[in-house]
Fold Calcineurin-like phosphoesterase domain-containing protein.
Amino acid sequence: MVAPWLVWAGAGVAAAAAALYARMSYEARLELVQQADVRLERLPKPFDGCKLLFISDLHSRRLTGKTIRQLAGTVDWVILGGDIMERNVPLSQVEHNLRLLTEIAPVYAVYGNHDYKADPEGLEKLMNACGVTLLRDENVPLLRNGARLWLTGVDYPRYKRNDYPPVPQLPVRDAGAECRILAVHDPAWLQKQKTIQADLVLAGHTHGGQITLPWLGPIRLNQFYRKYASGWFEWEQPEAEVRRPRMLISRGFGTRRVPLRLCCPAEMHVLTLRTESIEKTQINE
């Protein structure tokens, strides 16, 4: 005969495990929209108040129209930070995500490691069909009221990890005076840079660790990624063309391996570009 206290203890453990699993599943399914006002020193005045929607690491997750369509009319451009799909994700689901995003604003994308592991050729054809601009070490101008802002997309190294080429030069004589936003999937790109040649860098890849523990932090990230797991970063490089570059590393919207998160909820970002400093805020849509 089993002692009553063992039965109660077992029931307590089972209840705690069920509650933890429910919490982890909930965090993975959140559609958290992080809002931030981002000051860029070289931002042309006509771009003040423009908004970017940044989403990274969709993987196998399906976007819902409820959250995305609420942003229609408020977002000027959408940037996808790589890992738009992964193996065994049908292109029909990816098409759903892409067409939903192109409804609200022009969409630009870079590839991540899982895009290359899945179906890069099929994904590129689908992007072309949906009107999404794929940037592979390329620059594209964003125009507003006669002013110009450059968006640079850094391609994920297909054959040798971290084998990044130099940042593509801007096709103008006075490139040093041009404001630039750079999208790169993996923040490890930083390790190859002597100086950061962009006013704002947008990255993902880390998932913020996906499973993090109080006081211990992410349990699956190495030393570099623990330092650059997620959030905002800023540098001072007074001798460079860009004196105060900023970087956002997103926790991402999807998950990898298991559809669970802990102390690391899924997120996307609406970034309002500013020519003057305004504190960051966040909301839960």
